[in-house]
Amino acid sequence: MKVLNENHQNLLADFVCSLRKKAIGKKREFTNEQLEKPVSFWTKTDRLIDEIGKEFTVILRTKGCSWALGNSGGCTMCGYIQDANIKAVPSQFIIKQFDYALEQKVNELNNQKHNYILKIFNSGSFFDETELDSGARKHIYQRISEIKNIKEFVIESRVEYLSSDHLTELKHNLKNKYIEIGIGLETVNDYIRNNYINKGLMYKNFLETVNLCKSYDIGVKVYLLLKPPFLNEQSAIDDCIDSIKSLIDLKVNTISINPLNIQRGSLAEYLWYQNRYRPPWFYSLFKCIKKAVNQDDLKKIRIVSAPSGAGTKRGIHNCLKRECNSKMIRMLNDFVLNQELNRLPQKEKDYDCDCKIKYYLEKDYF
Ligand code: SF4
Ligand SMILES: [Zn+2]
C-alpha cells in the first residue's frame, strides 16, 4: 500500500474542508421556532440486547460536529453538518427539542408492553460542550430516568470528549438502564481511517476509551464504515471482515455496520458524481457478516445495520430493480431483529437476480 506523507494528508483535509465550506455556505439559517424542534424523531421495532423491542430515536439539532467545523473539514463520507445550526444552539433550545419529541411519544412509552431503547443522536458528540452543555445533558438524564420502559440508552461521541466525569454522571443518573456509547471507529485500520476517511482517530486512543467505558460497566457500540472512499469492493469486504473479527475479540457490546451512503457536501459525493465511487452492494454486506461472525458470537455481541438510503443510487444497493433490493432489505432486517445468521441468504440459489454476475465481475476485476 502506498503511504501518504503528511503533505498529502493536509491536501486531503484542505480539499474536504473546501467542499464542506461550499456546502455550508448554501445553507439557510434556522429560525427560533425551528430550533425548538428536533431534526426528527420516531419509534419503530428494533433489536434490544436480549429481545426484540422498540427504538425511540431523537435527532437533536446542535451547532454541529466540531471535527467537521474545524480545519480538518470532517470525515470524507459525512454530510451531517447540513442538518446542523453551525452557530451555537442555546441550552434551553436543546431541552425544548428533547421535550418536544418526548411529549409526542411519552404515552406510547408508558403504555405499551414493549421495552424500548432510546437513542439520542446529535450528528456529532453528546459530550462536546459546544453542542450540548451539562444542563441539557442532566435534563435529558432526569426525564428518561422516570420512564420505566426505557431499558437501554444510547448516545454517541468522539473519544476526545469522553471523560471519567461524564461517565460518573451518566451512571449516577441512570442507575437502572443499560447504557451504550457509540463510537465511530469505522475500521480497525489506522491507515484507512485517517487517510481515506479523514477521521483523526488512532486505534490506541479508541482502545483507551473502550477500557474506560468497561471500567464503568458502560457498553460500547462501534460504528464500522463499509466501503470507505478509495477502496474497491473487495478491499472494502476484507477491511470490514477484519474489523468485525477484531471487535468481537475485543468484546465490544454492539457493532453497527454502516454501508457508505452518499451524503451532501461530502468527498464521497464529489467522487460519486465523477463515477469514481459506487456505494457497496448488499452481496458484500452479507458476505462480511457471514465470514466474520458465527452464531456463538451473537450470544455475546449484537450486530446491527440500518443503512440510510438502502436500495437507492446513493445508498447500498444491488441492481436498481426494486424487488432485488427489497428482498435484501427484508433479509437484513430479519437478521438484525433475530440475530440469527440463517436469516441471511445461505446458498447461491438464494440470490436469484441476474445482477450477481455483474457484481462478481465488478468485485473481482475492478
Ligand atoms: S462522521 Fe462523526 S466525527 Fe466524522 S464529521 Fe461526521 S459527525 Fe463528525
Ligand atoms: Zn439485482
In short:
The protein has 366 residues and is of the alpha/beta class. It is built from 13 helices and 8 strands. It has helices at residues 6-25, 32-35, 66-69, 91-111, 134-145, 164-173, 190-196, 203-215, 233-250, 267-273, 282-292, 322-338, 355-365; strands at 40-47, 52-59, 116-121, 150-156, 178-186, 219-226, 254-259, 302-304.
Can you give a write-up of this model?
By secondary structure, the chain is α/β, with parallel strands linked by helices. Helices cover 42% and strands 15% of the residues. It has a single domain (6-277), classed as TIM Barrel (Alpha-Beta Barrel), CATH 3.20.20. It has helices spanning 6-25, 32-35, 66-69, 91-111, 134-145, 164-173, 190-196, 203-215, 233-250, 267-273, 282-292, 322-338, 355-365, and strands at 40-47, 52-59, 116-121, 150-156, 178-186, 219-226, 254-259, 302-304. It has an eight-stranded mixed beta sheet. Helix 6 (164-173) links the parallel strand 4 and strand 5 (178-186). Helix 4 (91-111) packs parallel to helix 5 and helix 9 (233-250) packs parallel to helix 11 (282-292). The chain binds iron/sulfur cluster and zinc ion. Zinc ion is lined by residues 318-319, 321, 324, 353, 355.
